[in-house]
Design brief:
The protein has 171 residues and is mainly alpha-helical. The chain folds into two domains: 2-72, no CATH class; 78-163. The chain has five helices and five strands. The strands form two sheets. Strands 3-4-5 form a three-stranded antiparallel sheet. Strands 1-2 form a two-stranded antiparallel ribbon. Helix 2 (81-100) runs antiparallel to helix 3 (112-120), helix 2 (81-100) runs parallel beside helix 5 (145-163) and helix 3 packs antiparallel against helix 5 (145-163). The longest helix is centred in the middle third of the chain and has 20 residues, at 81-100. The protein is elongated, with a radius of gyration of 22 Å.
């Protein structure tokens, strides 16, 4: 079972002083819960959302909110590029490893291509693609071209990783 230890609290504020008061009150209330939950001051970020843009509270610089692998700029939600990069890197590394094993299991009963499609494509297993599918249904990633490209072409991207030629070593 997966869980998230990230928490986001959204509050309507009328004055800037409210931010400090709310933050102190939240930390005080949670500290009364003992060891059940703890908050880290260093990891706590405060953002202001006004006029469809997000800004860092401390320096008022426009910024994107990074939460559970997604970025929010005040208008659009998109997948974090690092999340996509990690997915592609792991898929290609797994394909390379399986290519080097000639794609069959040790007893010859199944192909490792099935493993690649199960782990990195659409399947009943919980994986990155199933996470993106669920997120797309909830938060609508239609304005994120990278996420849409992956969701629409996931099998093709796996086929490309499978067909990639091995680089010959120079001796």
């Amino acid at each position: 079972m997966r869980y998230s230890d990230d928490l986001i609290i959204i509050l309507p504020l009328t004055q800037k002083e409210d931010i400090t008061n709310y933050k102190k009150e939240i930390f005080d209330n949670i500290s009364t819960m003992g060891n059940y939950i703890t908050l880290s001051q260093e990891k706590t970020h405060v953002y202001l959302f006004e006029n469809n843009s997000t800004r860092n509270e401390q320096d008022s610089v426009p910024t994107e909110i990074d939460y559970l692998g997604f970025l929010f700029d005040g208008n659009k939600i998109k997948i974090r590029p690092r999340s996509l990069g990690k997915y592609y890197y792991r898929m290609q590394r797994k394909a390379k490893t399986l290519r080097e094993r000639d794609w069959t299991s040790y007893n010859g009963k199944f192909t490792f291509k099935e493993t690649l499609y199960n782990n990195y494509g659409r399947s009943d297993k919980r994986n990155f693609i199933s996470y993106l599918d669920k997120a797309n249904k909830i938060i609508n990633l239609s304005e994120d071209p990278e996420a849409q490209s992956l969701l629409n072409n996931v099998n093709h991207k796996i086929q490309i990783a499978i067909k990639k030629k091995r680089k010959k070593r120079k001796n």
